[in-house]
Design goal:
By secondary structure, this protein is α/β, with parallel strands linked by helices. The protein has two domains: 3-28 and 286-394, Aspartate Aminotransferase, domain 1 (Alpha-Beta Complex), CATH 3.90.1150.10; 75-265, 3-Layer(aba) Sandwich (Aspartate Aminotransferase, domain 2). Helices cover 38% and strands 18% of the residues. It has twelve helices and 17 strands. The strands form five sheets. The chain has a seven-stranded mixed beta sheet with strand order 4-10-9-8-7-5-6, with helices on both faces. A four-stranded antiparallel beta sheet has the order 13-14-17-16, with helices on one face. Strands 1-2 form a two-stranded antiparallel ribbon. The longest helix is centred in the first third of the chain and has 20 residues, at 53-72. The radius of gyration is 22 Å and the shape is globular.
């Protein structure tokens, strides 16, 4: 595997490959891989598992990562905790709440399975009611959600950047709406983090979750959550054990204080360290600089696709979009397009239902081709992609 340098960061990407599937798993910076190796070479211990040097060094490594993430998002590090996945974090958060069969949760059909299936699990367990907004309501999501709020509404659960359509949402206005109506707001920022600035110092969702391996460009097997001080008072995590526990007797147990009480079992500290390193690198480049770069790529991509016959872009006027772009063709299957792109030019895209079946049902499509960029992509990458796709469609 060779290394490409983009924005001063060395990425593990082959010289002849064009990777356009960052919304599935981002490419790792070389230094983040080195951080993983360093942890296992130098430390390799577990936190809260002893007073010896190896355990102490492991704990220091974890706290360093926690501080880095706290600083990046303008919050106290005590509000940052780590779990194996965003799905684990979301289920833990949802099942900590006092939902019943009268409770209603507002969500969106544009969001993917990692957001929707935990909600469906809660629905089956508690009998809660789920109220979904759709594509049409996305034009004015704030007003659409506001209209759905009633006396039974308990929570709003959304992503900051939708997977299937790449819609960029105004999470700040929805945060304020939730605060004004005394509702829990859970935000999944897995697709958007690393691509734009997120400052939670002034106004923020009550619970924020994120995968470490998508927009954050960290290793797989890590995720983080940010919990507000208000929610922490009533947050009784379902997942307990290991380092989250202080003491146990025959009838009860006592959890540690925040943030450790949200971190059961043995944490993947090496992966967490790699995640923090990747986020620090992105922060050093500047999230606004990354956002502008990707908007330039999106414009080239959009203008190019509009000129290709037999291609339909998934879009709706009046929405704000991030670095995720989907399209389809009535002439050729999405999987076939993806395979041919790889065969002809080592271009890697995603194809299929994109873990977004509710969204696909609303579109009345079975599969899409998805292009998702990050700061390691270049204008040349996008031009090559457009030219290759144009050649493919010319043969159809």
């Amino acid at each position: 595997m060779s290394v490409k340098n983009h924005f001063g960061i060395d990425f593990i990407i082959n010289e002849d490959e064009i990777y356009l599937d960052s919304a599935t798993v981002g490419r790792l910076p070389q230094s983040s891989v080195s951080v993983l190796n360093d942890f296992y070479s130098k430390y390799g211990g577990g936190i809260s598992r002893g007073t010896h040097k190896i355990a102490i060094d492991a704990s220091r490594s974890l706290e360093k990562s926690r501080s880095i993430i706290g600083d990046i998002f303008s919050i106290d590090k005590s509000r940052v905790s780590f779990l194996p996945s965003r799905e684990t974090a979301l289920l833990n958060a949802l099942f900590s709440q006092s939902f019943d069969k009268e409770s209603e949760i507002i969500a969106s059909s544009l969001d993917d399975h990692s957001v929707i299936t935990p909600l469906l699990k809660v629905n089956k367990f508690f009998g809660t009611q789920l109220s979904f907004t759709g594509i049409e309501e996305e034009i004015d999501l704030f007003t659409s959600i506001q209209a759905k709020i009633n006396s039974n509404t308990k929570a709003i659960v959304l992503s900051s950047l939708t997977l299937g359509m790449g819609v960029q949402r105004d999470w700040k206005s929805i945060s304020q709406l939730a605060i004004d109506n005394e509702l829990l707001f859970i935000l999944d920022m897995s697709n958007g983090v690393g691509h734009a600035s997120y400052n939670f110092g002034e106004i923020a969702p009550h619970i924020i979750i994120s995968s470490g391996s998508i927009g954050a460009l960290g290793p797989q097997g890590s995720a983080f959550q940010i919990i507000s001080n208000e929610i922490d008072k009533d947050f009784n995590p379902i997942l307990v054990g290991g380092g989250s526990v202080v003491s146990v007797n025959e009838s009860d147990y006592k959890l540690s204080s925040i943030p450790n009480k949200y971190e059961p079992g043995s944490l993947n500290i090496a992966s967490i360290s790699g995640l923090a390193n990747s986020l620090q690198l992105l922060s050093d480049v500047g999230f606004e600089k990354i956002r502008k770069h990707e908007q330039e790529l999106r414009k080239i991509l959009y203008d190019g696709l509009k000129k290709i016959n037999k291609i339909d872009i998934v879009e709706k006027d009046g929405l704000s979009y991030g670095p995720i772009f989907s399209f389809f063709s009535e002439e050729i299957d999405a999987h076939d397009i993806a395979i041919i792109l790889e065969d002809l030019a080592n271009i890697y895209v995603r194809s299929g239902a994109l873990c977004s079946h509710l969204f696909m049902d609303e579109l009345k499509q079975e599969s899409l081709v998805q292009v998702s960029t990050h700061l390691y992509n270049t204008k040349k990458d996008i031009v090559t992609f457009i030219e290759t796709l144009e050649a493919i469609m010319a043969e159809i």
